[in-house]
Fold:
Amino acid sequence: VDAAHEEARDARDAREVTSCRQAVLESRQICLDDAPVRLDGDELGDLAAVPGTRPVHDERVRAGLDVLAARKGVDASRLAVTGYCFGGLVTAASSIHSAEVFAAGSSYYGGNTITLIGQKPAIPLQAHYGEQDHFIPMTDVQKISDTWTNVDVYAYHAEHGFHCDQRASFHATSAGIAQARTFRHFAQHIG
Structure:
């Protein structure tokens, strides 16, 4: 890509970022309506200790979701899931195995998501990847996009972890665009 195309893309991206005024979601939040609801570790348990790619079926996670659903003002039929890195894989797996729990999902650079492409997401799902990700090859991202034709797959001029402002790989423009797309996706599918 030549410099002029890159400059035009950056300008377009900056305009889209400017249109998004919502705060950045943290990795263990579930966004309901306009208010993010955070589940803490005591409610969810240790997600990293959950074996395999079906962690939402783990009793501790189900218990955490029950706690969330029981909170005043929470409409359990309008839950969305999002996650980053391992959480991105959890999100993709949840879109396949937990359609009865979640109405929509947005996965960020979910490592090993390629292992799930033999199954189909059953809820509206977005997947966000960095074109310069050293952990997730773009060939895998292309396979996911080609196989999961019902999923919106986006690639950004960024590295793995581009959405985390605590990492050297943070890329504000890509993070803002992905975040805006996630919020629009959730607004469309959970209202």
